[in-house]
Amino acid sequence: MDFDRDAAFPMKEKKHAVSKSIQLKEVEKLDNPVKSAILKGTQESIEFFLPYLIDKKIPTTFYFEARSANIFLDKNPEYLKRLNQSYFEFGIHGYDHEDLSGLETGLTFPEKDEYNIISEAKKKIESLFPKDVIGFRAPYMRKSVNTNKILESLGFVYDSSVYQETISPTFPYYETRKLIEFPVIKTPKNSKMRGMYTYLWPLLESKRNLEEIISNYLELVGNSKDEISYISVNFHSWHFAYNISQERYLIEREIKENLKSFTKLITALENIEDVRFSTPELWLKKHKKVLVKS
Ligand SMILES: [Zn+2]
């Protein structure tokens, strides 16, 4: 799960991301990284999906955008305990959801600045939870030319910011000498699943119905030829409660409907023999030895 400010979007000439919900309406807040971080959707989503994850003890990685995590946990300190489960793992997703590539903001970060951003984010999350942070997901899934080197020097073990086009579950691989990449699957346009990312975006934006989403995932799993290959199921902290294409926050009934769809997908996957829920850290603990160093 990417834990962000609601619908984080890059804006020209701004280092921090801006929540879509204020992007058009509250222009006076846009220069301020704190005021640009709206967490209404995350707040309303997490109340529903977290009890489900905890009830079922589903291993989950939270890639935290540090600013939003800090604001959220400051306001809701009870979540410090609720999130601190042995089967939850924490990674970093920028400090202010920076576009490290500069592709859309037109701003690139000198290496030292990027190092400080990621280092401060890691320190912040490690100060909130008694756990080491070893994973990274780049905001917008876009790294800079320096990101891998910075992650290595800060002691990150894995990254999950690269899309890989495939029709079957995949394998992590050494992205650099020390850094392991857990790619996110994207299916080819001409495949049975048509072009889909394993983000739940199409489901939560009502672009594909639940039956299609479930059958896509089942198709992917069915294509697996190796019992330790993996697929990640990806979503955003706010997406059960905010619809981007409709530019609106959802009402409780709709949020519950989204949660129901999510639980049906998880149940469908759970019912497949030999499917295990895991996280990169758990996967590495068991199987790191099979990976070949580059
Ligand atoms: Zn994000």
Describe this structure as you would to a colleague.
The protein is α/β, with parallel strands linked by helices and 294 residues long. The chain has one domain: Glycoside hydrolase/deacetylase (TIM Barrel, Alpha-Beta Barrel), CATH 3.20.20. Helices cover 35% and strands 12% of the residues. The protein contains ten helices and 13 strands. Helix 2 packs parallel to helix 9, helix 3 runs parallel beside helix 5 and helix 8 packs parallel to helix 9. It has a seven-stranded mixed beta sheet. A two-stranded antiparallel sheet has the order 2-3. A two-stranded parallel sheet has the order 8-11. A hairpin with an 8-residue loop joins strand 2 and strand 3. Bound molecules: zinc ion.
Taking the sheet with the most strands, its summary is: 7 strands, mixed
Q: Outline, from the CA principal axes?
A: globular
Number of strands: 13
CATH level 3 topology: TIM Barrel
Residues in β-strands, percent: 5-15%
Ranges with pLDDT <50 over ≥5 residues?
A: none
Can you identify the CATH superfamily? Glycoside hydrolase/deacetylase
- Count of alpha and pi helical runs: 10
Bound molecules: zinc ion
Helix content: 25-40%
Mean pLDDT: 93
